[in-house]
Amino acid sequence: MKIPLTAHGREDRMYWIHDKKGTYSVRSGYKLVMADSFKHSHTTIESFWNKIWRYKILAKVRNLIWRASLNVLPTTDQLRAKRVDVDSHCPVCLMHEESVLHVFVPCEFAEKVWETVGVASSPLLAANFKDSLTATLKNHHQDQEIIAMLCWVIWMNRNETVLNTKSFTVLKVVTIAKNFLQQWQDANQPPSKPAANSNRPELVKWKPPTTSSLKLNIDAAIFEDQGKAGLGLVIRND
Ligand SMILES: [Zn+2]
Predict the structure, then answer these.
(1) 229 neighbors 222 (Cβ within 8 angstroms)
(2) How far is the CA of 97 from the centre of ligand 1 (A)?
(3) Which entry of 5, 10, 70, 89 is 20 to 30 Å from 184 by CA?
């Protein structure tokens, strides 16, 4: 109401703000959309890929997450799309059509795995694995390595079922994932810095006892696997 209006009384008209003359054109509309999607792809999408490659985890696990996010794992829906004659059912639950998203999120087996480790996945909101992972990591950012590791073992279980008709239990999947991650982390810890001279423990040197007394030095060890123990002692005078 406070905008001063021109004295020359003009009709209101539509004005397209992205054109100097205020006239809409497909060209200006297209430019606007492209500029928007460019901005989007350089913030959200690129940072998603960067995040994956920064996971402190086995390279083959990072690679699996990357392939799953690109939807290029050989699941039965992908094979059928390429006209390979395979049963479309998920080989693990035998209930639904297998897709990358299905294997890792709504498949009954995967659901139980996530439930066991207390990770809430959001299958209903996601259209693909990448969206689902993004949504899950929003709430479980600090668990990204174990989540990636679990995906890898879920995929390993799926392949075992298809190729060797063996399958793991949910607990076995969780145990394998945790152990693999722990071993990898232990093996990849940065080497501890050499202690400064002042922190070095003092060298203990043997000193003879005082005259007319004896000194006893003793050490023992237990060999559990052989059911044996060893004991050594040395008694010396001055
Ligand atoms: Zn399934």
Answers:
(1) yes
(2) 7
(3) 70
